[in-house]
Amino acid sequence: MTQMMTAPPQDGAARAGQEAAVRADGAGRALVGSAQAAGELDLTRGELARAVQLGIVRAGPPTAGGAARFARAELARVRAATADRPDGLRRQVETVAGAQAAAEVLGVGPSRFTRLARCGHLTPVGYRINRYRAVVWLYLTAELREFAGREPLMLRGTAPAEDRELLAARGDMRPRTWRGRHVGLLLRRTADPWARAAVLACVLPEGELREAVPDPAERLILAALAPPPPYGHPQVPAAAAVAEGLLRAGPPDEVHWYRTSLEFALTGARRQSKSTGERGPT
């Protein structure tokens, strides 16, 4: 009589470990990197990055090294939600760079476009630093077209008195309006109070941050949770130094707004830490 060999029975811990490994392996296969995600959505990697920035595509948990990953379920949701793919998705993230290209979309001259942007009527979605270390602002093409249809009177005629006053004072709202947009997009990505506080903290000048958050341990938490530089932020040190100036609030009333918002966010974060017994995000 032939004896049948059987595997030794597993204890509960070993069986649970195997089941967890299977679940982790399945979760890993359900996540793909940026290159594959872009290919599945028929986008370039730059277009995918812009879609993530705008909240059109939600990134999944990153790799240990910080590289972005995307859940297949999320890619399927985006494909299902886009009627005219890939052109419809591309139109949502298409940008133009500089006053000349943006003015052509609006059907106006570059000087009028610059006035509209400097006075805060149009909000940049990003920036580049050119080889002369000058800021080149990027605008969503779809937003420019929407503005032209909504505000035809602003595309001709004389500038309003408040615009003329701002220009006479050499004012420029573009950095401020971009910061507001950037912070708003980052805040919409997380509900964690410490992570939200970190978004607000990264906009404040160092001196203001130290006054608003005197506890060094809390500043370390906020620094660890700080969002990475925005898409398009330069790597070359000289250009990066110029771009760094765009990341910090400047006018006193803007600084006050972000500082007040940070203090409010920290109140909620500290309350959460007190209830959980742990300091930092949950």
TrEMBL record:
<dbReference type="Pfam" id="PF19934">
    <property type="entry name" value="DUF6397"/>
</dbReference>
<protein>
    <recommendedName>
        <fullName>DNA-binding protein</fullName>
    </recommendedName>
</protein>
<dbReference type="InterPro" id="IPR045652">
    <property type="entry name" value="DUF6397"/>
</dbReference>
